[in-house]
Design goal:
78 residues, alpha+beta, three-stranded antiparallel sheet, 13% strand, globular, disordered N terminus
Length: 78
């Protein structure tokens, strides 16, 4: 049974996230420490690349997340 607030619990990011081609939005929010709205604004501005996984599902490419972090001086472990 779900508890109130479970939907907003932080998603656990896989340890090998750098080797995956895309990141689900819930994982991207944790990796980037940004809310979904900010990520969508970054997509609109061309700073992150969004791919559609289905009619309603979206993901952010891992390459664009790594590029985004490096542009901001964040070291990404390999």
């Amino acid at each position: 049974m779900k508890k109130l607030g479970d939907r907003h619990a932080k998603a656990e990011v896989p340890k090998n996230w750098q080797s995956l081609p895309v990141q689900r939005m819930c994982h991207a929010t944790v990796i980037l420490s940004r809310c979904r709205g900010s990520i969508y604004l970054d997509v609109k501005a061309g700073r992150l690349d969004l791919v559609k996984l289905g009619e309603r599902a979206s993901a952010i490419t891992t390459a664009s997340i790594i590029r985004f972090l490096k542009e901001r001086g964040v070291e990404v472990p390999k």
